[in-house]
């Protein structure tokens, strides 16, 4: 991996923006406590405050999985490109 | 004195003996050729795959104290205690971002601790010492709290003895549990907690699954449970089912601050560095949230304790007491075993992590620079014993609140190492002296602010939140201290750069941060007998 490679892929790509959004979303959702500090609607008797946050455990997991898959794709693409240039 | 719950005790002892045997046998598990190196004893040969790492990290982060304290907080104050859930949600995007870089650079340069990295990156033994000392100070009370967790279980089973029992009889069960833990950690290193974590988590998942279905049925459903809780909070005028407007800043800052702090703890880093590749870490961020889900369900047990009419003076006993009252004796025994073993796993990893810090960043850097790997391992083993004895003395001689206060302080302190560690992983812009100054300011502010928190019952260290200067809302002290720390670091970096203060030598290269197992220069993985993914 030489440092003088020409035509280096840009650092910020649409793919990477999506990855960043996936990773930032949980912060926005969880730190905005006012958006979920309420009792109704109940779910099976559990106040909204609790089941909403538990739901976010699943949502954030899904987002992390998406970020992981996209990151793998990003890295593969870069490796192919670098490999091609070296040869 | 309470009657001893014989059936529960027998089940507890059975599981305890089983994990003891496993702990000692662990030394032979995936044994490498060179046992006398710190990589082997202290990092399990850096060989763990996705699943072992998952169990190890889960066993490490979700401790007996968590199982007892989170529902206890809900039991006492309601919604405010639930911050543990958003906290663990936020942890995973964070580690997804920075831990793989730490893994790579550590593998490339053979770093065992975070302080090793800080020293290599900034060429500053002073900064590395600050990180090491903070890590050790923050870990000690954490180990002490694990022992408090075991004590709570023993108390409820009736083997803790009453207040009038002779201290030796009273503490004998804890001393035995402790002695066994110390012995197998000494002989097997990180392999022991890695193997025992399987048992611990299996038990915990079974107990939670049963508790979350069985107890609500017995108590008349979640409606009844939350109604009872609401009644209690309204009657006592303390807490509530949702955080009040004023408590929302506290809730959010506690969640964020704790999430930032978690992977600064030496024991979480130890478990991370023991994994065999960069991918293992990223893959783990997608399966670790299963523990968050479990934690959320567990937290609800606090409400169930209220609905079940559990009345305990010491909130820590609420959940063990709930199990005792609700479950048949044999299953209560399994639940207690889960908590007890849940204390042993993290206590072992924490003592190993603290010992590694001492050996690498105090002993080797300042006392005996020419120490061989064999000597390092020997020192680490001995220090792991000392750390545990220290924690034991702490628990036996001081009031429990002291351990809790120090753990609270530890969280605030460990967060102050964030700029040096995570900052260092992404940029070398920060000046080493500025980082040290920022750390000192954060430590001082955090300690003083925590000292000044008082309630009518407790004059000092009564909580971890205080007014945020300039904003006026109540927030987590650790996070305020962290922002102060960051501000000082940034300003001083500008000043020091303008003054052309000497920068330390950086022994790392940009490509080190993305290297993976198998790349050139990354040390070959140790040969292991059986490979388990």
From TrEMBL, chain A:
InterPro entries the record matches: DUF3311 (IPR021741)
Transmembrane segments: 17-37, 49-71
Protein's UniProt keywords contain Mitochondrion: no
UniProt keyword terms in alphabetical order: Membrane, Transmembrane, Transmembrane helix
A Pfam short name: DUF3311
Protein name: Membrane protein
Organism whose genome encodes this protein: Streptomyces hydrogenans
């Amino acid at each position: 991996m030489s440092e003088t490679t020409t035509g280096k892929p840009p650092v910020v790509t649409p793919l990477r923006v999506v990855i960043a959004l996936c990773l930032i979303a949980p912060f926005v959702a969880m730190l905005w406590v006012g958006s979920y500090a309420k009792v109704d609607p109940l779910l099976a008797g559990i106040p909204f405050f609790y089941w909403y946050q538990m739901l976010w455990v699943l949502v954030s997991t899904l987002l992390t999985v998406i970020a992981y898959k996209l990151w793998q794709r990003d890295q593969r693409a870069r490796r192919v490109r670098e490999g091609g240039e070296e040869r | 004195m309470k009657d001893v719950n014989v059936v529960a005790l027998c089940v507890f002892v059975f599981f305890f003996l089983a994990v003891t045997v496993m702990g000692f046998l662990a030394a032979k598990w995936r044994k490498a050729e060179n046992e006398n190196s710190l990589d082997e004893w202290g990092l399990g040969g850096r060989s763990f795959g996705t699943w072992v790492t998952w169990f190890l990290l889960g066993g490490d982060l979700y401790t007996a104290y968590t199982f007892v304290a989170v529902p206890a907080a809900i039991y006492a104050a309601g919604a405010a205690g639930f911050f543990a859930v958003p906290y663990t949600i936020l942890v995973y995007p964070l580690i997804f971002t920075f831990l793989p870089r730490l893994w790579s650079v550590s593998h490339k340069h053979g770093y065992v601790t975070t302080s090793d990295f800080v020293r290599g990156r900034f060429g500053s033994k002073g900064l590395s010492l600050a990180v090491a000392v903070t890590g050790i100070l923050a870990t000690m009370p954490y180990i002490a709290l694990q022992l408090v967790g075991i004590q709570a279980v023993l108390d409820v089973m009736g083997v803790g003895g009453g207040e009038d029992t002779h201290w030796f009889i009273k503490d004998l069960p804890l001393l035995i549990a402790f002695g066994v833990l110390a012995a197998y950690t000494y002989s097997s290193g990180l392999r022991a907690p890695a193997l025992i974590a399987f048992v611990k988590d299996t038990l915990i998942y079974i107990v939670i699954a049963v508790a979350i279905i069985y107890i609500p049925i017995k108590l008349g459903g979640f409606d009844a449970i939350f109604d009872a809780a609401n009644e209690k909070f309204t009657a006592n005028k303390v807490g509530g089912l949702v955080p009040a407007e004023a408590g929302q800043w506290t809730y959010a800052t506690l969640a964020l601050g704790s999430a930032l702090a978690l992977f600064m703890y030496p024991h979480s880093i130890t478990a991370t560095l023991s994994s065999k590749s960069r991918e293992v870490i990223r893959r783990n961020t997608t399966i670790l949230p299963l523990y968050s889900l479990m934690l959320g369900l567990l937290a609800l047990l606090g409400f169930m304790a209220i609905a079940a009419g559990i009345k305990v003076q010491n909130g820590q006993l609420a959940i063990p007491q709930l199990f005792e009252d609700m479950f048949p004796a044999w299953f209560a025994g399994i639940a207690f075993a889960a908590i007890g073993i849940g204390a042993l796993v993290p206590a072992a990893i924490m003592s190993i992590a603290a010992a590694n810090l001492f050996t690498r960043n105090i002993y080797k850097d300042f006392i005996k620079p020419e120490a061989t790997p064999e000597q390092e391992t020997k020192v680490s083993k001995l220090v792991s014993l000392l750390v545990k004895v220290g924690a034991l003395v702490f628990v036996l001689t001081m009031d429990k609140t002291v351990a809790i206060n120090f753990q609270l302080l530890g969280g605030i302190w460990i967060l102050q190492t964030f700029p040096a560690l995570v900052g260092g992983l992404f940029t070398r812009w920060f000046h080493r002296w500025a980082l040290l100054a920022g750390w000192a300011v954060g430590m001082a502010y955090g300690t003083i602010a925590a000292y000044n928190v008082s309630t009518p019952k407790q004059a000092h260290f009564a909580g971890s939140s205080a007014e945020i200067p300039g904003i006026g809302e109540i927030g987590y002290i650790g996070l305020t201290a962290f922002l102060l720390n960051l501000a000082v670091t940034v300003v001083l970096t500008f000043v020091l750069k303008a003054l052309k203060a000497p920068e330390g030598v950086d022994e790392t290269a940009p490509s080190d941060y993305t290297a993976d197992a198998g790349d050139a220069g990354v040390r070959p993985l140790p040969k292991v007998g059986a490979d388990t993914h």
